[in-house]
Amino acid sequence: MTDKTSLPIIGWREWIALPDLGIKFIKAKIDTGARSSSLHAFDIEVFEQDDGQWARFKVNPVQRNETWEVESTAPVIDMRAIRSSSGQSEVRPVVKTTVRLMGQQFDIELTLADRNQMGFRMLLGREAFRRRFLIDPGKSYRGGIPKKRKRHP
Question: How many CA atoms lie within 13 A of 21 on its CB side?
């Protein structure tokens, strides 16, 4: 078991990177109430390839900026029924990808969902940060804020 006092502390929102998906920076809400992590994706297409199911999708990494799109593909590891905060259940593709946060890099499972009406393009659920970080709900961006010119292509 990891000594809790040696874990880095993150805030309730952080800038993270999803390098496998071609996303240099995306603002994520650290959500201790959500088990799984979720990424705002649209034009989601699940297709068969020689080695299994894959998802092709687009992401707008920056809130309120729909002109900047990143197109990604990732292997689908599962199709899961996920209950939203409104209580609705829907089946979503789940992909595995790498996250970079505060100098750490690790793999997480990520559901793809239309989060366009939500305040954050990404939720980082507790399975992603469990045993890696402690959360200070009174702090934000403890990992730093990228310069605007680095956030955009």
Answer: 35
